[in-house]
């Protein structure tokens, strides 16, 4: 199944964190790297006043169940010392599952597709760069983006994530 993950960091050495998280996600062979987006610097959306984020999207192939993928993502978040202070507050690393194949679920600890992805240019802009044909709940991501403000999502061509080794 195709898996789309969104990475964000707005505390500490943000790029170093994204780089380390990407490597850690693919440490085991049950997740196969497909593509990674460019890195974007984005103004924070929602939550308290906080610093700008670096955001990127990673695409993978995996046979893991959605819940196992969430465990993997949360394990990597914890390994990078994420401190959860308040909802939507600053964090060293946030990894969201955006889609897992065609899975649709609405459990308290896992909602798929991610319930806010469709309105988040900081997810959709990198996603469409990693996969120009991307589709979210039957709608082309490129079309979803046409209705969103993207001005706060700025490319950082000086920061490039490499395919994990
Ligand atoms: N698709 C999903 N991806 C990641 N976490 C999810 C998803 N659906 C539900 N969750 C749950 O959301 C909980 C809170 O996540 P988190 O604290 O990262 O929220 P947030 O990043 O502040 O906000 P947002 O959910 O809007 O991105 C996680 O513990 C997880 O169980
Ligand atoms: N720009 C930006 N804003 C956010 C982000 C994020 O990754 N980037 N993540 C949030 C909670 O997941 C809330 N707000």
From TrEMBL:
<dbReference type="Pfam" id="PF01288">
    <property type="entry name" value="HPPK"/>
</dbReference>
<keyword id="KW-0418">Kinase</keyword>
<dbReference type="InterPro" id="IPR035907">
    <property type="entry name" value="Hppk_sf"/>
</dbReference>
<keyword id="KW-0067">ATP-binding</keyword>
<keyword id="KW-0808">Transferase</keyword>
<dbReference type="GO" id="GO:0003848">
    <property type="term" value="F:2-amino-4-hydroxy-6-hydroxymethyldihydropteridine diphosphokinase activity"/>
</dbReference>
<comment type="pathway">
    <text>Cofactor biosynthesis; tetrahydrofolate biosynthesis; 2-amino-4-hydroxy-6-hydroxymethyl-7,8-dihydropteridine diphosphate from 7,8-dihydroneopterin triphosphate: step 4/4.</text>
</comment>
<dbReference type="InterPro" id="IPR000550">
    <property type="entry name" value="Hppk"/>
</dbReference>
<feature type="domain" description="7,8-dihydro-6-hydroxymethylpterin-pyrophosphokinase">
    <location>
        <begin position="87"/>
        <end position="98"/>
    </location>
</feature>
<protein>
    <recommendedName>
        <fullName>2-amino-4-hydroxy-6-hydroxymethyldihydropteridine diphosphokinase</fullName>
        <ecNumber>2.7.6.3</ecNumber>
    </recommendedName>
</protein>
<keyword id="KW-0289">Folate biosynthesis</keyword>
<keyword id="KW-0547">Nucleotide-binding</keyword>
């Amino acid at each position: 199944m195709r898996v789309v993950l969104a990475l964000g960091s707005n505390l500490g050495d943000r790029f170093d964190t994204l780089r380390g998280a990407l490597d850690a996600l693919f440490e085991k062979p049950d997740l196969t790297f497909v593509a990674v987006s460019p890195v974007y610097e984005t103004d924070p959306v929602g939550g308290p006043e906080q610093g700008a984020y670096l955001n990127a999207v990673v695409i993978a192939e995996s046979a893991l169940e959605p819940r196992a993928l969430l465990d993997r993502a949360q394990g990597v978040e914890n390994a990078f010392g994420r401190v959860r202070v308040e909802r939507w507050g600053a964090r060293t690393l946030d990894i969201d599952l955006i889609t897992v194949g065609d899975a649709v679920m609405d459990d308290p600890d896992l909602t798929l597709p991610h319930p806010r992805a469709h309105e988040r240019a900081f997810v959709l802009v990198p996603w469409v760069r990693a996969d120009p044909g991307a589709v979210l709940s039957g709608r082309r991501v490129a079309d979803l983006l046409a209705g969103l403000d993207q001005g706060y999502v700025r490319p950082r061509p000086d920061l490039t994530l490499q395919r994990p080794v």
